[in-house]
Amino acid sequence: MKKKLYSLCMFLSILALILAGCGSGKAEEGAEGTGSKVSGIVPMYTPGAGGPNYIISAGIGQIFKNSNVMPGVVLTTEAMSGVVEGTNLLIDRYNQGKPAFAAFTGEALAQAVQGELEQIPGEHPELKAVGWINSTVNHVVVAKDSPIKSMADLKGKRIGALPPGATATNLFNVVLEEGYGVKSSDYKHIPIGYAEIIEGIQNGSIDAGVLPGSLPNPNVTELAQLYPIRILEVEEDILKKMVEKHPYFSYVNVESGMYPGQDEDTLMAAFESVIYTHEKTDEELVYNVVKTIMENGEELRKVHPSANISKETILNGIKTPFHSGAEKYFQEVGIEVNQ
Question: What is the pLDDT of residue 164?
Answer without folding.
Answer: 85
